[in-house]
Specification:
Elements: H1 2-7, E1 8-14, E2 18-25, E3 30-37, H2 46-64, E4 73-78, H3 84-97, E5 102-107, H4 108-116, E6 122-127, E7 131-136, E8 142-146, H5 158-175, H6 181-189, H7 198-201, H8 209-212, H9 218-223, H10 227-251, E9 259-263, H11 265-269, H12 271-285, H13 308-311, E10 330-332, H14 338-355
Parallel strand pairs: 1-4, 4-5, 6-9, 9-10
Antiparallel strand pairs: 1-2, 2-3, 6-7, 7-8
Helix pairs in contact: 2-3, 4-14, 5-10, 10-12
Amino acid sequence: MPEMRQRLIVACDMGATSTKALLGDLSGEVFKEVSGEGFNLRQGEPYDVGVVLAELVRLLYLASKFRPDDPAGIGIGIAGAGAEDARAEVKRILKLRWPNSRIIVHHDAFIAQYGAFEGGPGVLLTSGTGSIAYGRNSEGREARAGGWGWMLGDDGSGWWIGREVVREVLFAHESGTSTELTSLLLDEFGVDEPYGLFPIAYRDDFNRGRISNLAAHVPDLAEKGDEAAQRIMRQAGQMLGETAVRVAQQLNLPNEDLLVAMLGSVCEGGGWYLREGIRSALHEYAGGETGLLDSESAFDAEGEMLPAGVARKREHPPTDLTLEKMVGPRLVKPYENALHGAAAWIRDTLLKEKFA
């Protein structure tokens, strides 16, 4: 048991909606996972991180039946921890509670990207109510794009798609054309004609989430052939792809390192037209030279996206002696989630230090 305790690691994904933690070891085995309330460092204090994490660690050891002790390492990603000085203060406070543990702290996008790409280069594209892209290159340099909020940006997000539904319906109403989006809008807001939305939408107490909620239905209508819905989803994808490209430009990512993984309700449920728009933007970044984005080479036999770790691999030894083909840009599935990304990060850190 003492030898095992020395190999234990704790990982934590402290997000604004919920906090998750796991207890594992350096081999990659996970013994227990627990969850709790969300936390954002912008709304809380660094000391509170220690309080929240201490309770999660207590639950982990209790549920896994290990005798409480300082783990070998703690890796944690925290929403709102974008500033280095804030992360340093959190690390200092955690070190007071776990003086014998190696402690590493970063923001939540970092551990999500680390999990998605197994610690390698790539861009994580997230679109739900809002949208943002975050990536790292092979040297570990970071960059982000988007995340400007509903008033200034969030292009390709649920909010943006919902707003475009309203605009398409109003255009159709005024031009005498038809779209299935009209029934969707009228049913959601309980009005008889599109202009009836104005008194509702411009009230001071209007909940913008009602606009965002429309986005969930648009991919299905696009797949069924509604041209307005197809335009919206394709344009949403193009904008999201351009957001990922801005990250790639900041990082000077070569084509082979531009793998884009997607998270969030819009990215995960956006359907073919959304992915087509994203691939179009990536194709433009590549200068149209790879040809990968016009084929199914980025997908498995069922047409599904490959996990990042699989998509990055090349064939060894090669079956021919021609120049090695590029593996990107392309869309991929995240290899792991943010919590397991934090676990991989602390494991990699400890093992690198051990064998350095």
